[in-house]
Amino acid sequence: MAKRDYYEVLGLSKGASEEEIKKAYRQLAKKYHPDLNPGDKEAEARFKEINEAYQVLSNPETRAQYDQFGHAGPTGHGFEGFDFGSGLDDIFDMFFGGFGGTRSRRSKGPVRGSDLRYDLTITFEEAAFGTKKEIEVVRMESCTECKGTGAKKPGDVTTCPVCKGTGEIQQAQNTAFGRFVNVRTCDRCGGEGTIISDPCPKCHGRKKIRRLRKISVTIPAGIDNGQAITLRGEGEPGERGGSPGDLYVYITVRPHKLFQRKGYDLHCDIPITFAQAALGAEIEVPTLSGRVKYVIPEGTQTGTVFRMRNQGIQHLRSNTRGDLYVRINIEVPKRLNEKQKEILRQFDEMTRDSNDQRKSFFEKMRDVFGA
Questions:
Q1: How far apart are CA 187 and CA 171, in angstroms?
Q2: What is the DSSP string of 163-181?
Q3: Is 151 exposed, middle or buried (0-12, 13-18, 19+ CB in 10 A)?
Q4: What phi, psi does 310 have (nearest 5°)?
Q5: Collapsing DSSP states into helix, strand and coil, what is residue 91?
Q6: Contact yes or no for 314/128 (Cβ under 8 A)
Q7: What is residue 98's predicted lDDT score, i.e. its pLDDT?
Q8: Cβ–Cβ < 8 Å for 252, 121
Q9: Measured CA distances, 244 to 79, 166, 239 (Å)
């Protein structure tokens, strides 16, 4: 079944503010929360749909991606890795601090690592033909000294005596919705469920250290400005056995001095002389692969566009190429000597009566303004 529009799910218009999104989520989440509708599968499915919509639209970055790409997301694979379950109790956290049991089970399970973003600028030719780049990314990695335990020795890690290893402290609370269990993070262990008596001297008990990594990126031929390359597993490491996040390399392409790109086609303006336009000529046309000869016919007018097939940009993951469109601009000389001016006057007198376009124009002008 196709997903419903996220704005429609929350009953909002596309231009809704952050406060309107949060307010709509609060109202719908309270209405459809599974704990208030025990055994109601429809309410549970509706709540998950509401939560998924809120998780995407409440984040400015993912909301912008959704507005542009829809459910497919910037990579075409949807909002992969986005933790749609992480906000299931957000609305009740605002009032009650969460529900007993649900958060405890989730907090102890695997958590996927965060995604990273890297902005890479390449030349026009590199985008057209593809290339390889080596980038440097700063990311958190498991400490090699303690192997991610955070302790100097394995025996330095003990179960928290306050929460008994759960990482949470529960307290019953009566509300207008009934009796709920207020769950909060254990202050003693910070929600870890364990206490480190002697921290690792390298990571100081944080279990991770920040490291600079060099990563090779293959830029495919045909990539365009604003597109992204996804490097799976090159993001932040996961928690408690969770998979690592991904690295998104966003591409910025420098403009070219001669070409303008439109999709996979190229456009270029070429100046020629009046004589070349009138008599026809063989001219040199620049392409991404070098200069090529092209014959323009006599009587070519300024603004005429010629199409050169397969001289454009290669399509992504395909050998098909776009075309090159060459627009002719006739240059009018700015500095003429007296002899050149006289020759042009004679030429103008000789061609004045035979110039069909000019004659047609003046006939139209007489029709408008009279003789």
A1: 14
A2: TTTSSEEEEEEEETTEEEE
A3: buried
A4: 60, 25
A5: helix
A6: yes
A7: 43
A8: yes
A9: 15, 24, 8
Amino acid at 238: G
Looking at the DSSP bridge assignments, the partners of residue 159 are 194
Contact 219, 135 (CB under 8 A): no
What Cα–Cα distance (Å) separates residue 343 from each residue in 97, 107, 346, 355, 356?
92, 89, 5, 17, 21
Does the structure show a pLDDT above 70 at 206?
A: yes
Q: Which two tokens stand for residue 129?
A: 């033909």
In angstroms, the CA 363 to CA 158 distance is: 99
| Cα(2)–Cα(58) distance, integer angstroms | 22
Distance CA 217, CA 234 (A): 11
The pLDDT tens digits of the residues spanning 248-288 come to 999 999 999 999 999 999 999 999 998 899 999 999 999 99
**Each residue of 99-124: pLDDT tens digit?**
444 444 444 568 888 899 999 999 99
Distance CA 205, CA 207 (A): 5
Give exposure, 83-108, as e/b (b: 16+ Cβ within 10 Å): eeeebbbbbbbeebbbbeebbbeebb
* 304/292 Cα distance (integer angstroms): 19
Relative orientation angle of helices 41-57 and 60-69, to the nearest 10 degrees? 100
Tell me what pLDDT residue 83 has. Answer: 47
Which residues, including other chains, have CB under 8 Å from residue 348's CB and lie 6 or more apart? none
Listed residue (170, 172, 179, 191) closest to 101, CA to CA? 170
